[in-house]
Amino acid sequence: MPKCSNCGFIFRYDKCPRCGTPADVKNAPPAAPPPVQKIEENKSALSEFFEIACSITTTSDVDSVLKKVGAAAEKLTLTMASSIMLLDDDKKNLYFKVASGDKGTILTKLKVLVGEGIAGWVAANKQPLIIQDVSVDPRFTGKIDSESGFRTKSILCVPLLVNDELVGVAEVLNKIDGSPFTEKDKTILTSLSNFAAVAIVNARNISDQQNFFANVFEILTVAFEANDQRFSGHCFKVAQISTAIARELNITGNQYKDIYYAAVLHDVGFIAEPDYSILEHNSNRIHPIKGYEMIKNINLLKSAAGLIKYHHLMYDGSGFPADGLKKEAIPLGSRIISLVEAVEDMRFSVYPEEKIRQTVESQKGIKFDPVIADIYLKIIE
Fold it and tell me: What is the pLDDT of residues 69-112, one digit of tens each?
């Protein structure tokens, strides 16, 4: 800012407000650069926000996202502890979803009534709250402190809102240096809470969709098994054993879900067959292709569709469809379902369990993947 050449007053206008002398811009001292510490703080905040934003878009693990939100809240507000509490389904209580510190696991077992305490007040009023000294605020009950052993001195608590609907609350406790909470702290925690709310709602939507599709699959399965009551429950038995084998193979995530979906729906192709008999599932060479065609364009089932296509293809390449695949070239999920399907066929034909075991043992490396066969034999012991 320029300095008046007449009276020495430093000002920011085109002439000195004290004596009216025009500004000498040419000889004005340069503006002080922002402190390095301030720049680094801004960089750190941006980095934390960016990482959390990426987490929300790349993972459905809401607990992981919320832990990152809590850690970022503590770091950026320079506080000793943090927690995120969610609203119960009955909308009457808050429960601890994430809590930092040695006593965090204790807190996850506790609930807070909406309207009670600091967090309850924030939930009931949907308004942020800063309490610089909880000892003089009547809303502070001290119940959580008595359970956890943590001593709260000051608290910043904000609501988690999505379209003005309460999801929960987030709070940070006790500034490390003992200083008071600021409006900047409130802005930071509110922004982070918005991330947390989005992550929670996304996770719930995914869960609802999965539950919806799982129920639709069950309805479809009951529908195509209804052709013959003797076959009732076949697809779920195949799914139960297939997923047990998958767990033994340490298969998780989407690959595990694909095996479950494919096992439940492996005979869905019979719906497209006029006058079908599901009892012909071991000789009808069309139903795996029909099933594949029926679900291949459903995003959730694209990968499962390929497993259904080859669920009657044996390890040595025999079976159908005859696409020239054998051994490890056959999808792993198909190799699992193929063995389980063969075993269930033997049970349907009233084979004694010992004969089933002997057949699986004798066909290891021929009809059945030897690793999968060994796991199956271990499971039924």
Answer: 888 888 888 999 999 999 998 899 999 988 886 666 677 778 99
State how far the Cα of 197 lies from the Cα of 165, in Å rounded to an integer: 10
Give the model confidence (pLDDT) of 147-200 as tens digits.
888 899 999 999 998 888 899 999 999 999 999 999 989 988 888 888 788 778
CA dist 46 and 28 (Å) reads: 33
DSSP label at 130? E
Tell me, what DSSP letter sits at residue 3?
B
What CATH code would you report for 43-204?
A: 3.30.450.40
> For the chain, where are the alpha helices, taking DSSP H only?
36-58, 62-77, 104-107, 117-125, 143-148, 183-225, 234-248, 253-264, 287-295, 302-309, 332-348, 353-362, 370-379
Gap between the Cα atoms of 369 and 28, Å rounded: 83
> Inter-axis angle of helices 183-225 and 62-77, to 10 degrees?
180
Element (H, E) at 81: strand 79-87
Burial grade of 161 (CB within 10 A; 0-12, 13-18, 19 or more): middle
The CATH number of the domain covering residues in 226-379: 1.10.3210.10
The set of residues, in sequence order, having a beta carbon less than 8 Å from that of 230 and lying 6+ positions away, is 279, 348
Domain positions in the chain: 1-32, 43-204, 226-379
